[in-house]
Design brief:
Helix content is 12%, strand content 55%. It has 226 residues and is mostly beta strands. The strands form 2 sheets. Strands 3-4-5-6-9-10-11-12 form an 8-stranded antiparallel barrel.
């Protein structure tokens, strides 16, 4: 009888000790936000000063996203930007859309590829089409739920105008943007980038003339993060 009572008291004492130990432990918070002060915790058990905070950041190495963009395509040197507004430009405003895939090597640097389609209409109602494929690297710092991608890329393009095709054409692209993270999976933003399409026509014929078309693209962008 004494042994049983001793065992029961021992078990009770251990149980009470464990309960007090668990009660004294700080609560744990989990966040996917890059700022620990914004209060947008996904999981939160307590708000005591002794809480342990795990800040995973907005993006992590290994994260990926699919990017969809649609916007305005402005030719800059046909012959100059001002001619777009006074009616003397050989190419008028057009459009550009693209679909891309990007992968985070670190929390702030991605590599990826974008496939686009752009067009501009000429004075004679002919259409200049381009399908660029651009491989790019992006540096993307964050502040709260905002991110600011800065990117540069190199690739190739198929170009067509008035029934004549040019392939492969060289593509140079760089730009910047601003995005807002709506939730864990989606962000929206604005991006602007310069696009240069050199044509080395002299390589293909005596009457050809080398030329580099310069364009400014202004886009609305949606990204699905996973």
């Amino acid at each position: 009888m004494i042994k049983r009572l001793t065992a029961i008291l021992a078990i009770f004492a251990v149980s009470v000790s464990i309960a007090f130990a668990q009660a004294s432990q700080p609560a744990i918070k989990y966040s996917t936000d890059s700022s620990a002060e914004n209060g947008d915790d996904e999981y939160e058990e307590d708000n005591s000063d002794s809480d342990i905070y795990f800040d995973f950041g907005m993006n992590l190495p290994g994260d990926q996203y699919i990017k969809i963009s649609l916007g305005l395509n402005a030719p800059l040197n046909f012959p100059d930007p001002g001619s777009l507004f006074d009616g003397d430009s050989k190419l008028k405003f057009g459009g550009m859309g693209s679909l891309g895939y990007h992968y985070f090597l670190t929390s702030q640097f991605t590599v990826g590829v974008d496939i686009g389609f752009g067009f501009c209409v000429s004075v004679g109602s002919h259409i200049f089409n381009t399908v660029p494929v651009v491989f790019s690297g992006t540096y993307e710092p964050t502040a709260g739920r905002f991110s600011f991608p800065l990117y540069a890329g190199l690739g190739f393009a198929w170009e067509s105008y008035s029934g004549k095709n040019y392939f492969p054409g060289l593509v140079l692209r760089s730009g910047a943007g601003s995005h807002f993270r709506i939730n864990e999976n989606w962000s929206v933003g604005l991006e602007a980038y310069g696009l240069v399409l050199p044509q080395f026509a002299e390589w293909h014929g005596k009457d050809g003339e080398n030329f580099a078309g310069c364009f400014l693209d202004l886009n609305i962008v949606a990204r699905y993060m996973f």
